[in-house]
Amino acid sequence: MLTLHFNNTTLDVQESDSSYRYRSLMSKPQLVLKFSLSEFIEIPVGAWCEYQGVKYKLGSPENIKKNGTRNIEYTLTLGTLEDNMSLYKMRNPVDKRLKWSMCAKPHELVEAIVWNLNQRDGAGVWKVGECLDAAEQTVEFNHTYVDAALQDVANKFETEWEINDYTISLHKVEYFKDDPLPLAYGKGNGFEPGVGRTTQSDELPIKRLYVQGGDRNIDRSKYGSAELLLPKSQMLVYEGRTYQSDAEGYSIERIDKVSDAVKEDSLDCSEIYPSREGTVSAVECIDAGKNFYDIIDNSIPAELNFNDYVIEGETATIIFQKGMLAGDDKQFEFKYNHSERRFELVPQEIDGVTMPNETFKPAVGDTYAIFGIMLPDAYICNNTDKTGASWDMFREAARKLYENEDPKFTFTGTLQGLWAKKNWLRVGGRLKVGGYVLFTDEQFVPDGIAIRITGIKEYLTSPYAPVLEISNSVSGKSVSSQLREIGQNEVATDNSIRNAVSYTKRRFRDVRETMAMLEDSMLDNFTNSINPLTVQTMMMLVGDESLQFRFVASKTDLTAVNDGITYDNAAKQLRIPHGFIQHMTLGIGTISSSHADSEYKVWEMSEYLSPYLDNGEKKYYLYAKVSRTDTTAKSDFLLSDRAIKMNDVAGYYHLLIGILNSEYDGERSYVSLYGFSEILPGRITTDKIVSSDGKTYFDLLLGEIGGNIKFASTDGSMKDVADLEKLIGDGNDVFTEQPVPPYKKGDLWVNGKVILKSKVSRESGNYVAADWVDAVEYDNTKTAIDGGIVTSGTIQLAGDDSTIKAGATGEGTDEASVRFWAGSPKTDKEKAPYRVLQDGSLYASKGVFSGFLQVPFQDIDVAAEFTGYDSEYRAVFVVSDHFNIRSSSGRGYSIVLTLPYNRALDGVVLNVFDNPIKTRSSPTLWIKGETDLSGKGNIYHPDSLNSVMGFDAIKEIYCAQGGFIQFICVNGNWMVTSNMMPKSQITK
Fold this sequence. Notes:
By secondary structure, the protein is mainly beta. The protein has eleven helices and 76 strands. Strands 3, 4, 5, 6, 7, 8, 14, 15, 16, 31, 32, 33 and 34 form a 13-stranded mixed β-sheet that branches. Strands 22-30-25-26-27-24-23 form a seven-stranded antiparallel β-sheet, with no helix packed on it.
């Protein structure tokens, strides 16, 4: 029996056998309560119950099934306060931005998340728990909800999150690892019959892990490498296992056990580089008018004089990690005085604002890091005490290999109820998400395996027989977190110091010029151009055999990657990052369904940055100059203003990569030429589709979509990625074949050309077609005409320009749903200058009325929000959305009406009537304002005239014998405009 609380009443319900609580790794707990009642009772959103000491609250309307007049079946899905995380947006704690990035350690990012939650739920409700110690990472937030932000942070650090008692921790969720709970199949061993095992075949164990570090604060001429390396030939013990790095500092392997694994993998540690995070101990404003500010850090060691470590050819800069100047987009040059430990900041113009300034300035306690310097060896690699950036990278690599060197299994089984009940005091506390069990089975794992509980489903009527999900796999990204990356890439591109994917504008003249340059490019397999009026053919092959190459991740990982080639029209430079090119035809002399990686020619390419291309009339060919015989030799990119045949230069191939067109209107266009496109009737095979302005693209090879992509809904409106996030939801699955239970409400099924969405959750049984509806069908109402009645879901009115100007719709079920609108298309109906809502609210930007406008008075019980009783047992109400209020109330004879400090009510006229004909049962009314921290009220009364100037704010009006009083709200304060309460008294 559970007790539901709502509307100041309680309801005892007998839960059915199918009611359950579900908890799983990195997800919010749910209580699914099913019961039947003999009469209908509306259970409102906000109703709550308590189960095992935890309060669960109803966040969405109940599901109801009527099996008979006296048999009404209810299904309630209740959650905890954690559900609020999906309601709040993640904002920058400093300047409240919604689109921002943060480079920080795990605990600092969690602090930002906790700050956001406490801003809404109250100070001190949420806390920061245990967080792993890892190097700073940059996480982008783009109008992200808080729960999604937490998942993004976990994904960035390749770890997990958990919430216990509203304390957020970021680490691998593990309990009882050294003392796992023994469980096995069979009587007296724990599991009932039906234990199942799933092997994740796409996650093979890793034997060797290659690691590439960051390139910041690395002087290649002194260090011998452009990126940070691992400690060379060193050993590290992690979680009881021993790992060793190779002699060159490129990879690690486990050495205390012979592994049967053969798979290699790689880890991008570009966020790890030699650095020192300092703390500002003093700030001095030298000249505010000239934006001259100095900072001092007294903790800088005597031997660390930054002036001695500047990398030749680079400019040392300071980037603040915390405070008003934090962010990679704010870099400041400086002069350093080591004797005073003083940095003299050079002002910079950032986003049109010169910083530092009175608003954006450093403060004591802010942290910072210096870039463009080669720090002493102790900060890079200290093998004696195993410190420095290289050892940080080694530990991160060991963690990655540790979590991925064993086969991945998932087991599901139900505990034997009698066994569990008998042993509950011993085993009950261990049955928690993240708890380890020692699972053994004669067929599955005869030697036993220590494995974590990743999910627990416990039926309320049989709590001693929970269904356990146990797995040694770290949870991956949800569908919606992957979709968010599309939006987040926009933030990363905005803030990036290095070049990301970029496509330049393509104009018709650029295409014509490229055609002429291709005629001169001396490709052997083509004759001159043709110029027919029309072309009709069955097939078109665009490309040349010599140009069948691609950019890949490395010589050992032939995964296709983006070439990263960008042209900066402002700097007039072409930039190409370090990379690898794999040719698909050179050296392949046999026809086969597949070829070994060793058969292909793969060259390593050096990073390239062109000189300043000041001659706008020149056009260029871009080549990869690679050795014909030695693929181990590092190759170079070559920009040439003349065409070079592929075999023109002895010993080298010149592979034509692309063309950089001449300038037009101050801009050049770059286009790649390698690869091929095949055009057939009804099909095009190609790698990229790019818009003419270069801002929108489909990278079919990498599966990336960039730009401002909109999706057309069946109702004519346009949806973006954020709409898809809401559509899919967090933690939902995507099926590519006909779904078989279990599946959840909100799961998607990509069925050929359509996307279907599950409208129910089904735990078992067979596929039910009625469970699945069109995912993008927002208006399923068919238009019907029945005599004089027309029924439809949405009616839209188009103007002379064929755009939607007004309409009416039945979409939505809540009180704020728009029913009628005018002055905007349907997509913006919530902002239309004229709109009528479901609850009757009318919004209009202007109006002319004739006749009379009547706003009746309402009793205070209905017109205002009751908040409880104060210390004098007076019933306290707060003005909300009704502004003609009568003091009549059934809550007592002493009433307080509170006028809130709310700027959203600016311009509202409030009329209060307290019946002056008093009887013994008449209420006594006080009108109170909201006071600030100093105790000052927000009501201004004609009797509170200040002897010097203006009025003094008052706290309270005692209405005494009643009458009528009128207020107007200005900037959150309430001004008395008419007072017909002659006996009223004010309290300042």
